[in-house]
Amino acid sequence: MSQRRPLSLQARSTVAAGLALAAFLGVTGFALDKAYYDATVAAMRDRLQGYVYAYLAGSDVLRGTKLLPPETLPDPEFNRPGSGLYAVVVGDSESLRWESPSALGRELAFDTRLPVGETRFEGPVDNAVGRVFVFSQGVSWEVDERKPVALTVHVAQSDQPFLRQIDAYRRTLVRWLGALAIVLLLLQIALLRWGLSPLRRMVRDVDNVMNGDADRLPGQYPAEIEPLTGSLNELIDFGREQLDRYRNTMSDLAHSLKTPLAVLRSEIDSDSGYQNLRRSVSAQSQRMHDIVSYQLSRATASRHQVFSTPLAIENAAEGIVASLEKVYAAKRVLCEFELDPDARFFGAQGDLMELLGNLLENAFKWTDRRVLLTAHVIKTPRMRRSGLELRVEDDGPGIPPEKVEHLLQRGVRGDERVQGHGIGLAIVQDIVKGYRGTLSVQRSEALGGALFVVRFEAVS
Description:
Blueprint: H1 9-58, E1 60-62, E2 66-68, E3 85-90, E4 98-99, E5 119-127, E6 130-141, E7 149-158, H2 160-210, H3 226-269, H4 274-300, E8 310-312, H5 313-327, E9 334-339, E10 344-346, H6 349-366, E11 370-378, E12 387-394, H7 404-407, H8 424-434, E13 438-443, E14 450-456
Parallel strand pairs: 9-11
Antiparallel strand pairs: 1-2, 3-4, 3-7, 5-6, 6-7, 8-10, 11-12, 12-14, 13-14
Helix pairs in contact: 1-2, 3-4, 5-6, 6-8
């Protein structure tokens, strides 16, 4: 069963933005609907209370026994039967009960009597005429010198106009919020396409590199992906360099072996005798062994890894020095360390061993008594990876400045009487070059001999 392909970054961002937008607009719509509903109910209460005040202002109580309604009602709807707007006044006696013309023929359950000064707003409540909002107020009516008359004025309105108003508002709100959601989603998609365009451009550039249309990732990229593109360019360069290195190594090996093989063939074809042939075969086989060793060292000298675990210097150095002290036991070499605890080599373990091994072996070979290994951290602000400086110095004869470049060439030895192939320092130089570092040879001020300084700069 094939594994489901994960969503693209744009699809993920669009879904996440859509969900967040839906949640935001949903909460916003709920809040606006609640606010409008509460405001409409409050307006309904104020309107009904205004009708109560209008009735109180225009009504009168005749001799405390009969209620005279106002000649002009506050709203024409009070005169139209079944209009949905009703007024009822109830008192202590049946003669003090009055209903607006709109309430004629309808059994309105407005018999509640409120204490003087108390108001009550309810709704919507069920009634014989349907669901209505009701505002009620208890008042005390002064009648000449008689005892005050207690009245309760009820004004009610059907909830149908209220519901139509709410429904109209909600439809408008949904339309506008829906349109806003579509516009914002389209804008979000456009912004995402614009924001992700550098990644799409990087994919096209990688395809161009894979197809051979470009050598590296060209152009400028945003700061967030520059480390990635820089590492990719470094990886591309490293792969190209490695391919060239392997090609050159094989070519050089084949070319180097042609001469000793030709000598052997000529010796076989000649009548020089068994002893001469034996000596020639021995010499040429040794030469071929040296050539193969040289080329293998060259092929494996630089295994630069772009994404590497940082390696501590001290452990590698201690193992190498322990071995060298056995080899050069007769010299009684004193090797000292001055290592920063935070010093790290970002690369392959084999490269670190080759680097330290060849430098220290060279120092042990030429020193009189003392060797000093120093490691410092190169710290640069705003760099994601610190650099490293390695210093190996001895108290030997040193290297004259005019011979430094010559001695760093492959196969060149400082003294032909000293055993070796003359490729150690060249391997060091290849490793340093593979890691974009620098190698310099100076005279040691502390010990007086040679000083080899290897620097790997901090990486952004």
